[in-house]
Specification:
The complex is a heterodimer of chains A (98) and B (214).
Chain A: H1 15-26, E1 30-31, H2 32-39, H3 43-55, E2 59-66, E3 69-76, H4 78-96
Antiparallel strand pairs in A: 1-3, 2-3
Chain B: H1 8-23, H2 30-51, H3 59-64, H4 72-103, H5 111-136, H6 143-159, H7 165-182, H8 187-211
Helix pairs in contact in B: 2-4, 2-8, 5-6, 6-7, 6-8, 7-8
The chains are: A alpha+beta (98), B mainly alpha (214).
């Protein structure tokens, strides 16, 4: 039998990144402020975690102007959703084997 | 929030909590339902006991005989009564939701709130405008059924974004609205059941399920 640990994704070891991805799994897209409010993080902290997720192509960023104010929104990619599902399955597997 | 996770149980709990909090408006309080129901019952009692003089003024007549100006005062007071009920219920909903959010240490004005309101308001405002059309066309008998049906549709539409009971309250209101259309002369009775008694029942159920123990 395959070891479930091998399916745990290193990128989701951080609670914050796990939280970010949980929110993006159930919402089509969320903007920076919504994520900030939801997870109660500082701008810098949130931005660095989002940057990490973006670099690994787990989320995509889109920037647009709403009423001439810049708005940045984030969306989970198919690849990101797939990684998250595998991570989730691995967590469940771990609990079953406890 | 801890920076790194070692416990899969806690991880799953975090995931579930964030998924729910980010997709649903959870601050809706059962107390708003109870309060709205109480407002509607007081409003209906005022309508029946004072405006309609304990039923001595026949409901169907003032609804149909719109040419008779002696009934226009009654129609005005009924409309005023309905607006007061709506206003009180609305302020109750805002007040109790704010209170619940504050107790849980959550914000009230989030993207879940905005999404809930948009989905609630699309059918609700359509119904409101349609009711104005009915008023200007003197189809007053249809107002109670139309109000119940559109309100029910609004709740069903918004139910996806908040606690599950709202969906069933919406379905109940739609059924009552259709029945009010069939038994067209009993508009006030169905209105009282739909806006008064049903809000009391669902509000109490939600209060006992989600809030009593906390």
């Amino acid at each position: 039998m395959k070891n479930p640990i091998s399916n745990l994704q290193k990128v989701f070891e951080s609670r914050i990144r796990l939280g970010l991805m949980s929110a993006l799994m159930v919402n089509d897209s969320l903007d920076f402020n919504a994520l900030k409010q939801l997870l109660e993080l500082t701008d810098g902290n949130l931005a660095s975690h989002l940057k990490a997720l973006e670099q690994q192509e787990i989320v995509v960023v889109s920037k647009q102007f709403i009423d001439r104010k810049p708005s940045t929104s984030y969306k989970a990619t198919e690849h990101g959703k797939d990684l998250f599902s595998r991570h989730l399955a691995a967590l469940e597997e771990l609990i079953r084997n406890q | 929030m801890k920076a790194n996770s070692t416990n899969p149980n806690e991880d799953l709990q975090t995931i579930r909590e964030i998924m729910e909090r980010s997709s649903k408006f959870l601050s809706l309080s059962g107390l708003s339902g109870i309060f709205a129901g109480a407002c509607a019952l007081v409003g209906a009692a005022l309508a029946w006991l004072i405006i309609l003089d304990s039923g001595r003024i026949p409901y169907q007549e003032y609804m149909v005989r719109t040419d008779d100006l002696s009934y226009s005062g009654i129609r005005f007071y009924l409309a005023l009564d309905a607006m007061l009920v709506l206003g009180c219920a609305f302020f109750g909903a805002v007040y109790f939701s704010q209170r619940k959010a504050r107790k849980a240490g959550q914000r009230i004005w989030t993207h879940s709130t905005r999404r809930l309101l948009i989905h609630l308001l699309i059918p609700l405002l359509s119904g409101g405008i349609f009711m104005l059309i009915l008023v200007f066309r003197n189809n007053l008998e249809l107002i109670a059924p139309v109000m119940l049906i559109f309100y029910g549709l609004s709740l069903v539409n918004a139910g996806k974004f908040t606690l599950g009971e709202i969906h069933y309250l919406g379905l109940t209101e739609i059924v009552l609205g259709i029945l009010a259309g069939v038994f067209i002369h009993q508009g006030l009775l169905f209105w009282t059941i739909g806006f008064g008694i049903m809000h009391l029942i669902y509000g109490a159920v939600m209060y006992y399920r989600y809030e009593r123990l906390r």
